[in-house]
């Protein structure tokens, strides 16, 4: 599923769809974009988990 999405694109013609293979540079760009997206989500999740685990349990007032 992911491999197909990164190596081809779907084109609708009338009532049918055809898959058009991507050129190597287009497939490389799709792969890199997907990797950046996954890395971004993973990084944000990791930071949220770290912040949740390091947060004081009773809450602190910094007045």
Automatic annotation (TrEMBL):
<protein>
    <submittedName>
        <fullName>Myosin G</fullName>
    </submittedName>
</protein>
<dbReference type="InterPro" id="IPR001609">
    <property type="entry name" value="Myosin_head_motor_dom-like"/>
</dbReference>
<keyword id="KW-0547">Nucleotide-binding</keyword>
<keyword id="KW-0518">Myosin</keyword>
<feature type="domain" description="Myosin motor">
    <location>
        <begin position="1"/>
        <end position="63"/>
    </location>
</feature>
<dbReference type="GO" id="GO:0005524">
    <property type="term" value="F:ATP binding"/>
</dbReference>
<dbReference type="GO" id="GO:0000146">
    <property type="term" value="F:microfilament motor activity"/>
</dbReference>
<dbReference type="GO" id="GO:0005737">
    <property type="term" value="C:cytoplasm"/>
</dbReference>
<comment type="similarity">
    <text>Belongs to the TRAFAC class myosin-kinesin ATPase superfamily. Myosin family.</text>
</comment>
<keyword id="KW-0067">ATP-binding</keyword>
<dbReference type="GO" id="GO:0051015">
    <property type="term" value="F:actin filament binding"/>
</dbReference>
<keyword id="KW-0505">Motor protein</keyword>
<dbReference type="Pfam" id="PF00063">
    <property type="entry name" value="Myosin_head"/>
</dbReference>
<dbReference type="GO" id="GO:0016459">
    <property type="term" value="C:myosin complex"/>
</dbReference>
<dbReference type="GO" id="GO:0016020">
    <property type="term" value="C:membrane"/>
</dbReference>
<dbReference type="InterPro" id="IPR027417">
    <property type="entry name" value="P-loop_NTPase"/>
</dbReference>
<dbReference type="GO" id="GO:0007015">
    <property type="term" value="P:actin filament organization"/>
</dbReference>
<keyword id="KW-0009">Actin-binding</keyword>
């Amino acid at each position: 599923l992911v491999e197909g999405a990164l190596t081809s694109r779907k084109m609708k013609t009338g009532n049918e769809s055809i898959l058009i293979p991507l050129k190597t540079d287009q497939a490389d760009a799709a792969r890199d974009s997907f990797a950046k997206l996954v890395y971004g989500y993973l990084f944000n999740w990791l930071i949220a988990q770290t912040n949740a685990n390091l947060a004081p349990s009773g809450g602190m007032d910094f007045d």
